[in-house]
Design a protein that fits this description.
The complex is a heterodimer of chains A (about 325) and B (about 260). Chain A has about 325 residues and is mainly α. Chain A has one domain. Helix content of chain A is about 75%, strand content about 0%. In chain A, a hairpin with a 2-residue loop joins strand 1 and strand 2. Chain B has about 260 residues and is an alpha/beta fold. Chain B folds into two domains: about 170 residues, P-loop containing nucleotide triphosphate hydrolases (Rossmann fold), CATH 3.40.50; about 70 residues, no CATH class. Chain B is built from eleven helices and ten strands. A six-stranded mixed sheet of chain B has the order 6-7-8-3-9-10, sandwiched between helices. Chain B has a four-stranded antiparallel sheet with strand order 2-1-4-5, covered by helices on one side. In chain B, strand 7, helix 7 and strand 8 form a beta-alpha-beta unit. The chains are: A mainly alpha (about 325), B alpha/beta (about 260). Chains A and B meet through helix 7, helix 8 and helix 9 of A and helix 2, helix 3 and helix 4 of B.
Chain lengths: ~325, ~260
């Protein structure tokens, strides 16, 4: 895992091509969002289909603060996180008593309502035209290059990973996983189910808001089209494909689902079929634990290769 | 003796079905109390009412003199009621130790900041929790399996771990829903010894549902018999065995001899 992060940093430092920088930035952002979503979907086992909406709330908050008040980036990111979290609480508190499909439907509905607000509240959001000319991040006189945003995103990603890891090892994480595994048992042990579900939802939307603020200042432009249902679905796919509930899985899911469609761009419309196949195979490969399987596959190959070679040597002697 | 749990005229109906009608009983501090009755008598429904999973249609439940009917489980566990389930509800993909540690949830005082910054309180609490859980596992004789996933344990062992988890909550009243269902006779003997130890050594009050008459007769001090949602008898095991209504409803006529 450390190797992957190092590779990420090295690649980010080396690449010059602006297209690659953009792709890497998007992968970082989506890894962020997927890791945040993982708290709700993977650890607590709730089907949240509105992650892109929280991403959008964060992006709009940061965009408005930066354009109207010229707020610095650290204010933007914190405000975006807090506003997004408040929305998370507002949606979560009344709806998290719902289960399974019902909850998914409510979250989809919420995302749609939010999109309609983004489009129609023209005085605030400038409607479908979106907010343009958002100032980029600057520290003192230094204005962030596009590349710098990758590192900005990675820092936040590390924070999410740290928080998730610490929480998973605490009472809170144990309560969340108990809720995922068996709600009735969790209840019987005195765990306040609704409280913890709302907490997970709030944390997830908090980090999604952060990702939104980074994205808004990176692209300098937000519009309702940037945060559609399709993005929420893709994020859910990333979490499930990478291995929901695992710490690093969603990052792999994000990498695969960001880069594979790009690599397959030559195949035009057929590439989505391939992505679909990747999803199905990935999930069938033992419920999203595919990465562990791939790892094991290569490890086994490697060890058997070594064994064969050393066997040959013995034969020669 | 002091009364710990009192159930007063509990009625529960699901639509047109009257699952419990006017059920009353009282459990004293420190005793082993049994609830028996044929399938569908409403035993588990009564447990669901007492443990807060089901609000009664009417009637009252008192715990330590406090009215508690209709409170959610997460409020009842901290004041001292914990239960097991008829179909074991351990977290399958979690280790035995962590399953037991879930019982500590309500007494851990750590908050999010403690967890994030690995504070002293956090570390001490976690250590204490692991130690306590190990001790409880030793008490129920499952210490060998602490790192095993719960799903890998045989049924009888899972049952013991589930019991260990209720002990971990520090609840004074433990509700066991058919603890020896699906066990062979050797396992049943072991379990009844364990329940006696929980009662005598840990000083917990045990309220259990059971099908196995022999098991109940040896273990419990008082018995209430439920049939079709109504209390049909109450008394000591000896009295229950002689009660003609019970023999007819539950033991079946002619099986009396076999039970003695």
């Amino acid at each position: 895992m450390l190797a992957l992060l190092l590779a990420w940093i090295v690649v980010a430092a080396v690449i010059k091509n602006s297209y690659f920088i953009h792709m890497l930035f998007m992968a970082t952002t989506y890894a962020l969002l997927a890791c945040a979503l993982n708290i709700v979907v993977g650890i607590t086992g709730l089907a949240n289909m509105s992650q892109a909406a929280f991403f959008g709330i964060g992006a709009y908050t940061a965009a408005l603060l930066a354009t109207k008040f010229g707020a610095p980036f650290y204010i933007n990111i914190i405000a975006a996180a807090v506003v997004s979290m408040l929305f998370g609480l507002a949606v979560g508190a009344p709806t998290l008593r719902l289960k399974g499909f019902y909850l998914s439907l409510v979250t989809i509905g919420f995302a749609q309502v939010l999109r309609i607000i983004e489009i129609n509240w023209v005085s605030l959001t400038n409607g479908p035209m979106g907010i343009t000319a958002i100032p980029g991040v600057s520290i003192g006189r230094y204005l962030f290059s596009k590349k710098a945003y990758i590192f900005y995103g990675l820092v936040v990603l590390l924070i999410i990973l740290y928080v998730t890891k610490r929480l998973m090892a605490s009472k809170i994480g144990r309560a969340l996983s108990a809720i995922k595994n068996d709600e009735v048992a969790a209840k019987s042990l005195g765990i306040n189910i609704t409280y913890y579900k709302v907490l997970a939802f709030a944390m997830s939307s908090f980090f999604a808001g952060m990702a939104g603020s980074i994205y808004a200042q990176y692209t300098t432009f937000v519009s309702p089209d940037s945060f559609v249902q399709n993005d929420s679905t893709t994020l859910l796919c990333m979490v499930i494909l990478g291995g929901s509930g695992t710490l690093f899985g969603p990052i792999f899911g994000a990498i695969v689902l960001i880069f594979v469609p790009e690599i397959l761009r030559f195949a035009d419309m057929y590439r989505l079929i391939f992505v679909g196949v990747v999803m199905i195979v990935g999930i069938l490969a033992k419920e999203g634990q595919w990465f562990a399987h791939v790892q094991k596959f290569f490890k086994d190959r490697l060890t058997s290769l070594i064994r064969v070679k050393s066997g040959n040597r013995e034969g020669a002697v | 003796m002091e009364e710990l749990l009192k159930v007063e005229n509990i009625c529960v109906s699901f639509g047109g079905l009257q699952a419990l009608s006017n059920v009353s009983l009282s459990v004293d501090k420190g005793e082993i109390y049994a609830l028996i009755g044929p399938n569908g008598a409403g035993k588990t429904t009564l447990f669901n009412v007492i443990s807060g999973f089901l609000a009664p249609t009417s009637g009252k439940v008192f715990y330590n003199g406090r009215e508690v009917q209709g409170l959610p489980p997460h409020k009842l566990t901290p004041i001292g009621i914990s239960r097991t389930f008829q179909n074991i509800r351990l977290l399958p993909n979690v280790t035995v130790l962590d399953n037991v540690r879930l019982g500590h949830h309500i007494r851990l005082k750590q908050n999010m900041a403690d967890a994030l910054f690995n504070s002293r309180r956090f570390r001490e609490e976690e250590e204490k929790s692991i130690e306590d859980a190990r001790e409880i596992l030793r008490f129920v004789g499952m210490e060998k399996y602490e790192n095993e996933f719960a799903r890998n344990l045989p049924y009888g062992h899972q049952r013991k771990v589930e019991i260990a988890r209720t002990i971990a909550t520090n609840a004074e009243l433990l509700l066991f829903d058919e603890p020896c269902a699906g066990m062979n006779s050797a396992e049943k003997v072991g379990l009844s010894e364990l329940i006696l130890e929980i009662n005598k050594e840990l000083k917990r009050t045990v309220f259990l549902i059971e099908h196995d008459m022999r098991f109940v007769m040896k273990l419990s001090e008082e018995i209430t018999v439920l049939n079709q949602g109504q209390c049909i008898a109450y008394g000591t095991p000896e009295e229950i065995q002689e009660d003609p209504d019970v023999i007819e409803a539950y033991l079946g006529v002619g099986r009396k001899g076999g039970q003695e």
